[in-house]
Protein: Flexible cuticle protein 12-like isoform X1
Amino acid sequence: MKSRARYKDRISCEIRHFTVSIRENSTSNMKLIVALCLVAVAVAAPPRSNSGNVEIVRFDNDNIGLGNYKYGFELTDGTGAEQQAELRNEGKEDESIAVRGSFTWVGPDGVSYRVTYTADDNGYQPTIEQGSGGAVPPAVVASFLG
Structure:
């Protein structure tokens, strides 16, 4: 009987030790999960920018709806666009419109970019220019070429 009582005490002690161990690990795991969640939120946060303070510097629009048009704008953050179109072969079977233009922006790296293009019977033909700071990334070139 005495050995049986010792066995029960030993099992009870081991079970209590196991329970405490689980609780300690659960607390550690919970702290780790909370810390990882905070890191994930910080990483997923959008970057700070001054885009809320952007103002229109210039806006031009000349379009009376008869084929030819011209427009342009500039913003205080360096973004801008110009475009003009000319109706070709008006009233004929091969009537088309030829568009020339450009758009500019300043990338998150602080480098200015400019795309100048023509879109006519020969398709879309962009030329990409970049201010100082390095080569135009291949992904940017590919996105404009389709």
The beta strands are 56-63, 69-75, 80-88, 96-106, 112-120, 123-130.
